[in-house]
Fold this sequence. Notes:
Elements: E1 3-7, E2 16-20, E3 30-32, E4 35-37, E5 39-42, E6 49-53, E7 57-61, E8 67-69, E9 72-73, H1 75-89, H2 93-104, H3 110-122, H4 129-137, H5 139-149
Antiparallel strand pairs: 1-2, 1-9, 3-4, 5-6, 6-7, 7-8
Amino acid sequence: MSVEFHRCNVKDCKGFVIFDNADFDYMHPDVVDGKYEYKSTSCTECGKGYKVVPHHVVVSVEDDEAFGYLEQASMSEWEAYKRERQYEMETDPHTRIQLFIENRGYTYSVSDIVTQYLKYEESPCYLSHSMNDCIQHLKNEVKALISTSV
């Protein structure tokens, strides 16, 4: 059993085309519209449909019947994509900060980020690379937390 991941080929789409090839009948693939096909699937982001054809090549059939081959992706890329989407869709500032910290692999707590942000705003000082990364990317979230706690 193998789960395959491919990047969608739609311009500016960050989605993935994912399928499990465990149950493919390699000796007798289905014939759909006169073409061999193991499975139909779609992009996780934009929903564009794709066909999985023999030899594990995922192709996009365009209106002019031209084929577009998808670049294969890895499971770790898919997991990173899911974490990024979770962060992007989150609206609670505390949870967004926590997700950012986890996604970057930092060991800070949310209160560490808020404390350092307040200290830095009061009197700019040296910040480690990772703390600077947090403060630069999380200004809006920290400000939202501070305004709700006042």
